[in-house]
């Protein structure tokens, strides 16, 4: 049973199969992956994916990384992740939270979190915990949707009128993060899948309006990639 203090992620918790289709649709051109490789190459490295869900990104990381660790607090999702990576010797999935990672000090090279809402304004404890488990020179990378960009951001702001994009970006900047914006597209195999994904991300009214505005099977979506390196400390000549 999941920790009662875990904050639910309604889309993937309640509609994991639709969320799987959403993951498959995201960024087919691999633009985010190229940015991540530039920030933190994974060859001979250990990466932990915080809030890994059903483990969608774990096999992708395993292609390059020496060791991959998924951390997920919700039992059903963690079981799905374990099944996904059962035949991958370099991947493991652990129970845990962003604020209490089940890892030793200075044991990983990259901490990755994607569209994980526990990494936003007020996530100081999660940042501190990431810095604890990172080796000197390692990177914390937070990939999130850029709500300031149309059209996807328009739909999000319609449902979340109190969301303050400037405040979020100012928070990360004050915490010492760099920022890169990445323009991507989501590409769906058919209209039914597209409409189903919109239905788990937005209210019914906004999802219907969004679907009417999309002429084909692709949606332009911009991401923010925030990253911060752990200092290596003093280097003596």
Automatic annotation (TrEMBL):
CDD domains recorded: AdoMet_MTases
Entry EC no(s): 2.1.1.-
UniProt-recorded Gene Ontology molecular function terms: methyltransferase activity
Gene3D superfamilies in alphabetical order: Vaccinia Virus protein VP39
UniProt keyword annotations, A-Z: Methyltransferase, Transferase
Enzyme category, top tier: transferase
Gene Ontology biological process terms in this record: methylation
Homology family: Belongs to the methyltransferase superfamily.
Alphabetized PANTHER family for the sequence: METHYLTRANSF_11 DOMAIN-CONTAINING PROTEIN, METHYLTRANSFERASE TYPE 11 DOMAIN-CONTAINING PROTEIN
UniProt name for this protein: Class I SAM-dependent methyltransferase
Species of provenance: Rhodococcus sovatensis
Organism classification: Bacteria, Bacillati, Actinomycetota, Actinomycetes, Mycobacteriales
């Amino acid at each position: 049973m999941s920790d009662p203090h875990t904050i639910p992620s309604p889309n993937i918790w309640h509609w994991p199969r639709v969320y799987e289709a959403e993951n498959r649709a995201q960024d087919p051109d691999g633009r985010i992956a190229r940015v991540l490789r530039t920030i933190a190459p994974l060859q001979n490295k250990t990466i932990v994916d915080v809030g890994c869900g059903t483990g969608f990104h774990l096999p992708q990381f395993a292609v390059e990384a020496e060791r991959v660790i998924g951390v997920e607090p919700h039992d059903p999702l963690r079981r799905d992740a374990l099944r996904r990576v059962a035949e991958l010797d370099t991947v493991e999935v652990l129970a845990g939270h962003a604020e209490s990672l089940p890892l030793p000090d200075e044991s990983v090279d990259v901490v990755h979190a994607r569209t994980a809402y526990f990494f936003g304004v007020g996530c100081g404890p999660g940042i501190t915990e990431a810095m604890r488990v990172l080796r000197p020179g390692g990177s914390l990378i937070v990939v999130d949707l850029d709500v300031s960009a149309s059209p996807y951001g328009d739909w999000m702001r319609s449902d979340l009128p109190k969301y303050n994009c400037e405040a979020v970006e100012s928070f990360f900047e004050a915490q010492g993060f760099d920022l890169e914006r990445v323009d991507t597209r989501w590409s769906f195999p058919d209209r039914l899948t597209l409409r189903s994904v919109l239905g788990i991300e937005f209210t019914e009214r906004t999802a219907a309006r969004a679907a009417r505005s999309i002429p084909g099977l692709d949606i332009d979506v911009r991401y923010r990639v925030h990253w911060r390196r752990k200092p290596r400390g003093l280097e003596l000549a």
